[in-house]
From TrEMBL:
Pfam families reported in the protein's UniProt record: GlcNAc
Organism for this UniProt entry: Stenotrophomonas maltophilia (Pseudomonas maltophilia)
SUPFAM superfamilies: Nucleotide-diphospho-sugar transferases
Protein name, as recorded: GlcNAc-transferase family protein
InterPro entries, alphabetized: Glycosyltransferase, Nucleotide-diphossugar_trans
PANTHER family, per the entry: GLCNAC TRANSFERASE, GLCNAC TRANSFERASE-RELATED
Length: 452
C-alpha cells in the first residue's frame, strides 16, 4: 500500500537561509513524516551550524565521519534527516551536490528531488504518491516534474502562485545546446490528470526510487546544462514526464542566498580549495552535454560511463518526442508552445519530419567603409535575402552605429532568425539611402553565422 511506502528526499543547499524553513514545512505538511528520509548536501559557512537545527526543534541523534563528509543524523516528527556537512569553499556545483546526496540512497520506494527553498501542499506526500500510481496506466515509468509555482517566504501563503506550468523549448546556444522556459499549462482535457511533458526540471522530480540508480545526477553538470542533459538521459532510460495540474509544492525564484559563483574565484590559483575555476566547471559541463547530444566538442569525449544515454530509447526517439533536432538547431512549430508530445511524429519519414522544422540562427553582420570619403551617408539599410531573393530581414543602422562606421571604419549587429530552411538568408546587401554619396563613399558587408 502507498501509505507504507518510503520517500527518499534529496536536497542540495548552498548557504541558503531557506533550508530549515523548507524542511520544517515539508515535514509539517506531510501526512506520514515517519516515511521520509531526507538527505541534504549542506554546503555552508560560519553563518550556519548544526546547533541552529537543534534550536529549531530538530533532534541530533549522532554525528559520524562519512567517506565524503561528516554526517549529522537528525530527527523531527519521525522524519529521518542526514546533513552532509560540506564547507562552501569545497562545493563544486549543483550536479556534484545532488550526486553526493544520491549516494546515500538506500532503496526507498520513491524519490523526491528538490532545491532548498520550497513550500509544500498539505498532504503532498500522499498526493504525489497517488498521482504517480494513477499514471502507471499511461507509462511503466512515470515521473512528476515541472518548475513549481512561485512563493514569497515573507508573505506565504498569501500571494503564492496557484497555476502550474509546462516546460518548453526557449532557445539554442550557437553550438546547439537547448535552453528551456516555463509556460502556464492549458486547462486539462476531460478526464486528464496530468499533462505529458517533454523535459524535466532539476528542482522538482518525483519518481520511483530506482530513478536514482538509473539516472544518477552527473557531478560534472553545472547549472545551465542540468535540465536538458537530465531530460535526455531520463527519456532514454524509459521514463515519461508528467506536469501536475494542481500545485504540489512552491519554489522561491527570487532567492537571495549567495551562489557558488559569488564565492569561488574565476581562477583556481586564487583559492587553495578550488581545483577548477567557475568558468572551467561551466565549460566542462557544456562540453560533456554536447557529447551526450552527439554534437561536436573541443576534444574527443568517447565514454560518458554511467552518465550517458540509456538503452531503452534512442536520442533520435527523444528528438521526435520533444520536437527538436539538436544538430540542426531546429524545432517543430508545436514545440514552441505547451503541447503534449505528438506520437504521430514517430511514424514520419526523416525527410517529412525535417520539412516542418523551424531553424534558429544568429548572424553577425559587419558593415565597413572601404575608402576615406569626405562625408558619409546619413542612412544605411541592410537587407537579408533567402534563396528565392525574398527579403527576410531589414536593418537600419542607428545613429551611434553610423558614428562608429565613420569613426572606426565599421559597425556591426546581430540578426536572429527563426525560419524554415528555405527562408534562411543566403545573401546580404547594404544600401546607402540618403546623404551626399558622390564623394566616393563605398561600403562593404560581411555576414557570418555565429557558431561558437
Amino acid at each position: 500500500m502507498n501509505s507504507r511506502k518510503t520517500i527518499f528526499v534529496q536536497i542540495p543547499s548552498y548557504r541558503d537561509p531557506q533550508l530549515v524553513p523548507t524542511m520544517e514545512d515539508m515535514i509539517d505538511s506531510a501526512t506520514s513524516p515517519h516515511l521520509l528520509r531526507i538527505v541534504v548536501c549542506w554546503q555552508h559557512g560560519p553563518e550556519q551550524d548544526v546547533q541552529y537545527f537543534r534550536s529549531q526543534g530538530f533532534e541530533l541523534i549522532q554525528t559520524e565521519s562519512g567517506s565524503c563528509a561528516t554526517i549529522h543524523h537528525l530527527r523531527k516528527h519521525g522524519a529521518a534527516i542526514e546533513l552532509l556537512d560540506v564547507h562552501y569553499a569545497h562545493a563544486k556545483g549543483c550536479g556534484w551536490a545532488r550526486n553526493l546526496a544520491q549516494q546515500r540512497y538506500r532503496g526507498e520506494n520513491y524519490n523526491l528531488q528538490i532545491d532548498s527553498h520550497h513550500r509544500f501542499a498539505r498532504a503532498w506526500d500522499v498526493k504525489m504518491k497517488n498521482l504517480l500510481e494513477l499514471l502507471r496506466t499511461d507509462s511503466p515509468k512515470p515521473l512528476l516534474t515541472g518548475h513549481p509555482p512561485s512563493f514569497d517566504p515573507d508573505t506565504y501563503p498569501s500571494g503564492r502562485q496557484e497555476s502550474t506550468s509546462a516546460i518548453v523549448f526557449d532557445s539554442f546556444s550557437p553550438t546547439g545546446l537547448v535552453s528551456l522556459r516555463s509556460v502556464r499549462l492549458p486547462p486539462p482535457a476531460h478526464g486528464e490528470i496530468a499533462f505529458k511533458g517533454k523535459f524535466v526540471a532539476g528542482g522538482f522530480i518525483f519518481s520511483d526510487g530506482s530513478f536514482i540508480q538509473d539516472v544518477m545526477s552527473d557531478p560534472d553538470q553545472f547549472f545551465c546544462t542540468e535540465e536538458i542533459s537530465l531530460s535526455t538521459r531520463a527519456f532514454t532510460y524509459g521514463y515519461d514526464f508528467f506536469h501536475p495540474y494542481a500545485p504540489l509544492l512552491w519554489h522561491q525564484y527570487n532567492n537571495h542566498a549567495r551562489k557558488i559563483w559569488d564565492d569561488q574565484p574565476e581562477s583556481p590559483a586564487a583559492d587553495a580549495h578550488a581545483d577548477m575555476s567557475i568558468g572551467d566547471r561551466s565549460d566542462a559541463a557544456f562540453q560533456k552535454t554536447l557529447a551526450l547530444m552527439g554534437l561536436p566538442t573541443k576534444s574527443a569525449i568517447n565514454d560518458l560511463g554511467t552518465f550517458g544515454l540509456g538503452s531503452q530509447r534512442t536520442l533520435l526517439q527523444y528528438e521526435r518526442h520533444c520536437g527538436i533536432s539538436f544538430h540542426r538547431r531546429a524545432v517543430q512549430k508545436n514545440s514552441l508552445t505547451p503541447q503534449q508530445p505528438d506520437r504521430s511524429s514517430e511514424a514520419l519519414q526523416a525527410t517529412e519530419w525535417e520539412q516542418n522544422l523551424i531553424y534558429f540562427r544568429s548572424v553577425r553582420v559587419r558593415v565597413s567603409h572601404t575608402s576615406n570619403p569626405a562625408s558619409f551617408p546619413t542612412s544605411v539599410l541592410v537587407t537579408a535575402h533567402s534563396i528565392d531573393e525574398a527579403v527576410q530581414a531589414t536593418y537600419t543602422l542607428s545613429g551611434p552605429e553610423l558614428e562608429a562606421l565613420s569613426r572606426e571604419g565599421h559597425a556591426q549587429y546581430i540578426d536572429n532568425f527563426n525560419l524554415p530552411l528555405h527562408r534562411l538568408p543566403i545573401r546580404y546587401a547594404v544600401h546607402m539611402l540618403s546623404g551626399d554619396v558622390s564623394t566616393g563613399c563605398q561600403l562593404s558587408i560581411c555576414a557570418e553565422e555565429i557558431a561558437t
